[in-house]
Design brief:
mainly beta; four-stranded antiparallel beta sheet; 31 strands; 11% helix
């Protein structure tokens, strides 16, 4: 007769991370009962470390006068006395005073010659000879931390930049301001808004020059050609339009997108236009013939950022599927896919001089090399918000703008965040309307213009009265690479 069935309790599925933490804790409890306390200080090892440093600094100078001094071993075993500047007695066995058994074995010889045998036998300090070259800190013996010289962090120190301040607020749009582009002559800029209009403003005075209507949804992308009198716009109405600025009217429309168009870019050397949108495709258009040259498909979600370069990779796109893709414009194929981000890549900025670019996501801002796309480093702080727009000027000041109205300024070379500003909403607006949707530097890089959710356009410039004394640089290199 089969016995009564016993119901097993369900086993809770444990993640790999949880299991490894358990294993770590068990190992710590087994092998280190006092792992919460610091190790007791060892004066002997401190003495060795200090004397080794002195030997490194002064041993090379003295041995340079007599290069055979470190290698001269006299038959009576007085090799320590013959090279007092280059030998360091280490604690060894009891019979270490006997020259035949321990005299040479317990000497740490610092000199210009490196013996392979000595470097291979560096397991126990008391039992072997470690020979360290005195030619420089790069040729150190890295066998033990007792005599290891600490080297400073290799992280570049940031350049000092004056803080930026808001000096002008322009109001005129009746909806969220979603996009911006500067004229190649730097005399005006245009903004696209959720009120379905494009407005053109004077850079110097901030006055409205012109209002263009034609879209039936909000305008998310703008670009002004530096070769023709054309301006291009794209929006949520699936339309991409070409405006002739001599007649102030639409002369071409580019049909093909299946949903809203989120980003737009002009190629710097060829007459082509790139648009990316909610149909997960970046489309390449011939400006003159209105024909679609390529549909760069490969992303799994909305293409929300794009920039172009004259050299390979000529097209770089960022998407809500968290990837960045490099495209070969000749064949319309993917050259590389970067999967470093964990959240949507809503903004990217190409450095105007270097072959590098930065991409922004809600998890982090990352810097990459071009053309291969090697990951360089993360920015040293986290903005902890959805970053909608970013731009960098020739001085190496990168500005990033978030959904919560935060404007952060970064030093490009080091990734140090030197200023955090918060936009102030217009009177009458809700606090939730403190979002920034687009930003751009003018052609000189001295003015910064932001487009915001409180229907305003704000202009920023550097504070002329700031000095390194009034606004000191508060920089600490990252901890993980500060040691050794």
């Amino acid at each position: 007769m089969p016995g009564p069935t016993v119901e097993m309790e369900p086993v809770e599925p444990q993640s790999l991370k949880k299991l490894s933490f358990k294993s770590l804790k068990r190992a710590l409890d087994l092998f280190s009962p006092i792992h919460g306390h610091f190790a007791p200080p060892d004066p002997e090892s401190k003495k060795i470390r200090l004397s080794h440093k002195i030997q490194l600094e002064y041993g090379g100078i003295k041995s340079a006068t007599n290069p055979n001094q470190a290698n001269s071993t006299q038959p009576d075993g007085n090799n320590q006395a013959s090279a007092p500047s280059n030998a360091l007695a280490l604690p060894g066995t009891e019979n270490s005073k006997d020259p035949q058994t321990g005299g040479t074995q317990n000497a740490l010889v610092v000199g210009p010659s490196v013996q392979q045998k000595g470097l291979n036998d560096v397991g126990h300090l008391g039992k072997s000879t470690a020979v360290v070259s005195s030619s420089g800190p790069s040729e150190r013996n890295l066998s033990t931390s007792a005599i290891m010289e600490r080297i400073p962090s290799k992280w570049p120190r940031p350049v000092w930049h004056p803080p930026w301040r808001n000096y002008r607020v322009i109001s005129g749009h009746l909806g969220w301001v979603r996009s911006i582009a500067f004229d190649p002559s730097n005399s005006w800029f245009c903004t696209g808004s959720a009120d379905r209009t494009i407005k053109i403003w004077d850079v110097g005075s901030g006055r409205l020059k012109l209002t263009l209507t034609g879209h039936i949804e909000q305008i998310r992308g703008l670009a002004v050609s530096n070769k023709h009198t054309y301006m291009f716009s794209a929006g949520d109405d699936k339309q991409v339009k070409c405006w002739d600025l001599e007649q102030n009217k639409v002369i071409r429309s580019y049909h093909g997108h299946l949903s809203g168009v989120y980003c737009l870019a002009l190629h710097p050397t060829i007459d082509i236009l790139l648009t990316g949108g909610r149909d997960s495709v970046c489309r390449v258009w011939d400006i003159r013939s209105k024909m679609q040259i390529h549909a760069l498909s490969g992303h799994d979600n909305t293409v929300c950022s794009v920039f172009t370069r004259p050299t390979d990779p000529q097209v770089v796109t960022g998407s809500h599927d968290t990837t960045i893709k490099f495209w070969d414009l000749r064949y319309g194929k993917t050259m590389a896919t970067l999967t470093h981000h964990k959240k949507s890549v809503r903004a990217m900025a190409l450095h105007p001089k270097e072959h590098t670019f930065a991409s922004a996501s809600a998890d982090n801002i990352k810097k990459f090399n071009l053309p291969k796309g090697e990951f360089l480093h993360n920015m040293l702080s986290q903005q902890k918000t959805i970053i909608n727009a970013m731009a960098v000027n020739e001085e190496g000041v990168m500005a990033t703008a978030g959904d919560n109205g935060s404007m952060w300024f970064w030093d490009w070379k080091s990734g140090h965040n030197f200023q955090q500003a918060q936009t102030i909403v217009q009177p009458g607006s809700l606090d939730s309307e403190a979002g920034i949707y687009a930003l751009s530097y003018d052609l000189t890089g001295s003015r910064l213009v932001t487009c915001e959710a409180d229907k305003t356009i704000k202009m920023w410039k550097e504070d002329e009265n700031a000095t390194p004394e009034t606004h000191p640089l508060n920089f600490k290199p990252p901890k993980d690479i500060r040691r050794f």
